[in-house]
Amino acid sequence: MENLNADFAAFLKSEEARKEPIDTGDWRKRMADDAKKNGDLKADATPNTTLVNKYWDATPDEDSA
Q1: What is the pLDDT of residues 3-18, one digit of tens each?
Q2: 3-state SS assignment for residue 28
Q3: For a tag on the chain, would you pick the N or C end, based on fewer CB atoms within 10 A?
């Protein structure tokens, strides 16, 4: 098994750990643009919540024998 603690300690000393993070812009706008592009805009605006607060009971019915 790999020694993850040693790998992380080596990463902390590396140049990559000290460089500034890359600014990828506003994630909300990017997600909205992606939803518009792939056709999920209506589904994202009106999610199907019919199964909320419900569960499936796996116990067998008493009638089915």
Answers
A1: 899 999 999 999 999 9
A2: helix
A3: N
Work out the pLDDT band at 51, boundaries 50, 70, 90.
low
3-state secondary structure of 31: helix
Contacts of 17 (CB under 8 A, 6+ apart): 11
User: Taking a C-beta distance cutoff of 8 angstroms, is the pair 35, 44 a contact?
Assistant: yes
SS3 content of the chain, % helix, strand, coil (to 5): 50, 0, 50
Element spanning 57, H or E: none
pLDDT at 54: 62
Q: Provide the 8-state DSSP code for 33.
A: H
